[in-house]
């Protein structure tokens, strides 16, 4: 099955991704992550490589930025496709006192686009912002 209109589907996936992170909603994020997805921090002092089930446990312990009144800030830098079943998205999101850059590898599998790998880096923001 070929993905119809991949950019629109990927944009919708990314909107759910941002909303799920903002709400720390692991059930919502399960709708956009592949069950075999990997979560990797590229921070040398905070390196982690987790399976998606392990990442869900981290999310379930997080205080959602939505609950603390944080302003939601995100940006899609780029989306690239490779054939009918592979895509890459570079996105940024500011939350929890950090500016994140996420590299997301997506696959079209079982009739839907899903994040197969999330590799990210972050920098601390000014707390007064």
Structure description:
The protein has 3 helices and 6 strands; from the N terminus they run ααββαββββ. The chain has 129 residues and is an alpha+beta fold. The protein has a 6-stranded mixed sheet with strand order 2-1-6-5-4-3. The radius of gyration is 14 Å and the shape is globular. The protein has a single domain, classed as Nuclear Transport Factor 2, Chain: A.
Please provide a brief summary of the model:
25% of the residues lie in helices and 45% in strands. The protein contains 3 helices and 6 strands.
Give the total of beta strands.
6
Q: What is the level-2 CATH architecture name?
A: Roll
Biggest sheet, spatial arrangement of strands:
2-1-6-5-4-3
Low-confidence stretches: none
Counting H and I runs of at least 4 residues, what is the number of helices? 3
What is the radius of gyration computed over CA atoms, rounded to a whole number of angstroms? 14 Å
Helix/strand structural class: alpha+beta
Q: Main beta sheet, described?
A: 6 strands, mixed
Number of domains: 1
Question: Percent range for helical residues?
Answer: 10-25%
User: Given this structure, which CATH class is correct?
Assistant: Alpha Beta
From the spread of the alpha carbons, the general shape counts as: globular
Summed over residues and divided by their number, the pLDDT gives a mean of 92
Sketch the topology as an H/E string, one letter per element: HHEEHEEEE
Protein name: Nuclear transport factor 2 family protein
